[in-house]
Every structure is written in C-alpha cells, then in structure tokens.
Amino acid sequence: MNPLLQITGLRKSFVTPEGQRKVIVDLPAFSLAAGQQLALRGESGSGKTTFLHLVAGILAADAGTIQVAGTDMTGLSEHARDKLRAQNIGYIFQTFNLLQGYSCLENVLLGMAFGAGVDRKRGQAMLERVGLGHRLRHYPRQLSTGQQQRVAVARALASHPKLVLADEPTGNLDRRNAREALALIRETCRENGAALLLVSHDPEVLAAFDEVHDFATLNRALQEAPP
Amino acid sequence: MTLALIILRSLRQHLFSTLVTAFSIALAGGLLMAVWIVKVQSQATFTQVNTGFDAVLGARGSKLQLVLNAIFHLEASPGNVAYSDYEFIKRHPAVKFAVPIAVGDNLRGYRIVGTIPEFFREVEYVPGHTFTLAAGQLFNPDAKEAVLGSFAAEKLGLKVGDVFHPFHGLVYDEKNQHAETYTVTGILAPSNTPVDKVVWIPLHGLQTMSGHDPKAATDVSAVLIQLRTPTAGFMLDLMYNKQGNRLTFAYPVGAIMADLFSKIGWFDRVLTLVAYLVAFVSAIGVLVAIYNSMSARRRDLAILRALGAGRLTLFSAVVLEAAAIGALGMTAAFAIYGLIVGGVAAVIRVQTGIRLEIWAWNPVMLWAPIGMILLCGLCGLLPAWKGYRTDVAANLSPIS
C-alpha cells in the first residue's frame, strides 16, 4: 500500500532581491503513512514553512513529485491543487489565521465549504469537541489566544482531512496552553483518522512525539548553504 | 451559499465604506431616475394637456404665449380680442364650440379668470369627462359669484358661501384691491389640469370690474376653440395668421407645447448628461473604496485560499460585492428619487395645477438599477484582479 504522502526529488527556489536564485527546499525523499504522527525539528528560516506550503499545494514545486492520497500534485493546475487541498488537507498556523469578520462557527464552516461541503452539525460538534460549544457565535477577537488556536484546530479537522499540517502551532501560546493545544491536535487527528505532520523548534513539543526528524538533515538546501 | 456568506461578511467588515458608497450610489441613481422621469413625464403631460381645446384665438403675437396664458394660466395675455371677433369665430362652420376667457385679476396670487358657465358643463377636458363640482353649484353668469378650482380653493382656504375681494393684476399686490365682493358658490372636483388653480367668475364680471378700462368692457382676452374636424384648423390658421394681421390663431395646442420642449431640449440633455456623470463618479467611488481596502483584505483572501477556495471564487466574490453595493444603493435610490420628484411635482402642481404621476411605471426604473449594478460590478473588476493576484504564501504569516 502506498503511503499517504510520498515526496521524491522535491526542489523549490526563489529569486532573492539581489537577483540571485536561492534554493530553499531540496528534499530527495520523504514519506508519511496514513494516520501517522510525525514531527520535524526546524529552526525558523530553515524552509520548513515553504516545505509545508509545497505539501499543501499553496506553492508549486520547481521539480520532483508530491503524492497526496494517491494523486501527484506537481502535475496539477492551481485550481486542481486548491481542490485537492480543500478535500484532503487541514492546516494549522502559528498565528491561527482565523477570519476576524466571521464567528467561530462560520470559521469552522468555511473550513468545510470548499471541500467536503458545509455541515452545520459537524461544525458545532467540532467546536464542542475542542471545548468551545458555548462560543459558537463569538468572534475570534473575543477569545483568548488558547481558545483561538482551538477554533483553528476545529476548522482544520472539520472537513475530514487525511493529512493535517501544523506549522509551529504552539509558537504563540504560553506553556500551559501550548501543552493543551498540542494534546488536542494529536487527539483529534487520531479520532478523525488524519495523519499529522508538525514542524516546530520547541524541544518540549518535539519531546511529545515518538517520531521526530531533523528537517536540516532532510533538506539538502541547508547543507549546501554557506555557514 | 458560501459565496453569499463571504460577500455579506465583507460588506459588514467594511460597513462604513459600504454605507457611504451605497449612499453615493443612491444619490446618483435617484438623481438619474428623477431627471429622466421629470423630463419624460412633464413632456408627455404638457403636450397632452389642452383642457379639451384644439386651438386658441388671441391678439397678434406669440402662439406659445397665447397657449401658456389661455390654457396653462401662465404668462401675461398678449392683448385683447374684440367681442365681434369672438362672435365671428363662434359661428364659423368649422368651429364646434368656442369659449371666451378674460384675465387680469387675481386672488392672493391665484388667477381670476372670467368665462361662461358652458365651459364647465359642455367641455370634455379629457375624453369622456366634463368638469364636476365637489361642492355647491356653478355661478350665475350675471351675478358676482365664483367657482374655485380644487387646488385654488384648498390653498386659499375658501369654501362655498365665503366672500372675497378680487385684486387687480396677475401678480398679487394688496394695495390693488377691487371694491367688488364675490361669493363662492361652488368648488370644482380635481381635474389635474390647470383649471384646478384658477378662481373662475362670470365673463361679464371680469370685463366690468371697477377700475378696468370701460372702453374694453366687451373685449375678451382669448377664445378657446374646439373644432369639428382637425383639418379645419389649417384653414383657420391660413385665414388668421397668413391672410390676417390682427389676430393669432394658435393651433394645434399640443404641437406648440412640443415645440417649446424641443426648444428647451438642450437643457434637459445637459441635465441628463450631468446625471450620467454623477452616476459614473459614484461607481468610481465603489472602485476606490474596495481597491483601498484590498490591502487589508489580502490576509483574509490568503486564509480562504489556504482553506481551499479557488482564485476565481474570490475574484467573483469581490466583483459581486461591488455589485451588491450597487444593488443596496439603488434600492435606497428609490427613496431619493421619491424626494426629488416629489419636490419637483409639488412645484409643477403649484405653478400649473398639473399633477405628475411620481410612481408611474417607466422603463428607467428597471434599466437604471440594472445599469448601475452592472457598472458597479465592472468597477469591482480592478480590485478583484488585485485580489486575484494575492500571493497566498506571503500573506499567510504577516507576523514575524
């Protein structure tokens, strides 16, 4: 059986303001099984956010293949990648990225709108699951940071994704909230049968995972770069 | 449904600019519809109103002045017509009915016009309708009695049995009071014609009012004429205007008014052009408002993209939002329209007695809103393009 996520020969470069081409991601091979939970250790500036954007199809790769749930993303149009992302991938950000003009429930519903389709009951159930059943009509600014990240977790998982990407999800939280948010992400992924790919530089977060890879050893772009 | 939610939330998030731009659309759209309808309605009404007459015979002068004075009770009388001329045309075989009128007095600004009672009994001011009395009865042609048009009676606050002194001249001046008193015997039912704003008295009464020139006591100001056949008008036109040089035969009434409107046509073309410009500028306002807020929206657009929304979905959301502002504005535009046309109609009613139909159906009430909504949508294309090109990766993490 094929793994859920399989990456080979992935390359992505940007043109710097000075006009030079700089390779950000150069990943010979990477894979993740369905339901697997894996953490990547990565400092900021290591290209880990770019890597997650590539996996999510937000950015297009220069070379290589990214297979998500049996579909090779690199050959797809942007529109097809949007659809693939909407149907298969949930994204959790360090800065939560909740939509400020929408209520908590509406935020969660928008997480489903472009993929599985809007299901109010499911949206409410997800917010209840993360302990915010009493905050459906509240707006993000009315919540604490810990609560905001819980809304983001509910949004990421509402559309039954097969893969959840988490980019420093605890980076903006205090120690207690961080621990709770991490536990919540891991539990809800398990409950919904979603694989979890998390990147962080926080040792406490990384210690919670059985499997931790060092992004610096995976990404050859970092090894080539001059110190 | 998701698209509707995105548009609604975005309108609400930028509520102030939504309301301000919608208000400017409302003003512009209301103005456009008002200018259009006042033009169309007044033209249609003024060229149709002839109070049942085909022609006016009066002193030598402008046909337009004759019509305005004798039919619309505006303007001064260009001079007098001898009673013998009235007698002559009354008996002319081509003439079905002739009504003499005499002007020159007023009651607190409302014109007093002398005529014969047959005017009210026999003339169909619109086909099938003769004048009817709302109260009282017609004046006795030999008594000092008056019948008031409905609008004049209402504004003057007079009712049957009331007594008044006429004032000399067409313009009210309290120093020029006549000695006679007249008694109101009847009030006419509204006809929505210039007849409504006139105080009617017997012809003889006006001719012999104290202080009027006794030498002109049998003269009339003009004769209103109904013809037996339309072609007879051209014969009389030839007789009075081409062969004669004492009198003017104004015929046909509708064409003379249409001529007036075509003379002042440049004026409402300018007004219409200004209204179009205002509409255009207000649509540009929508463009600027949304365009300026695009920087603030980029993060939201990037988040929606990360949730799987396609570029095209968000592009159409911005275009539809601009169109929605247009729709909101044009809904309110009908209120603005009502205010403007209501005001104009009130002025026209006071000046001419004619009532404009404010809410009568006109295609402009359909094409102006549709056109404005489309124009706003068009103006949404530029900000939508700006949003379309939003770099998702760069806008997802503005912090750090």
How would you describe the overall organization of this protein?
- The complex is a heterodimer of chains A (227) and B (400).
- Chain A is an alpha/beta fold and 227 residues long.
- Chain A is 37% helix and 24% strand.
- Chain A has nine helices and nine strands.
- Chain A starts with a strand and ends with a helix.
- In chain B, 54% of the residues lie in helices and 16% in strands.
- Chain B contains 13 helices and 13 strands.
- In chain B, the strands form two sheets. In chain B, strands 1, 2, 3, 6, 7, 8, 9, 10, 11, 12 and 13 form an eleven-stranded mixed sheet that branches.
- In chain B, helix 2 (15-48) packs antiparallel against helix 12.
- The radius of gyration of chain B is 30 Å and the shape is elongated.
- Chains A and B meet through helix 1, helix 2 and helix 3 of A and helix 1, helix 10, helix 11 and helix 13 of B.
Brief summary:
The complex is a heterodimer of chains A (227) and B (400). With 227 residues, chain A is α/β, with parallel strands linked by helices. Chain A has helices spanning 48-56, 78-88, 104-113, 120-129, 145-158, 175-191, 203-207, 215-218, 220-224; strands spanning 5-15, 21-32, 37-41, 63-68, 71-72, 89-92, 163-167, 195-200, 212-214.
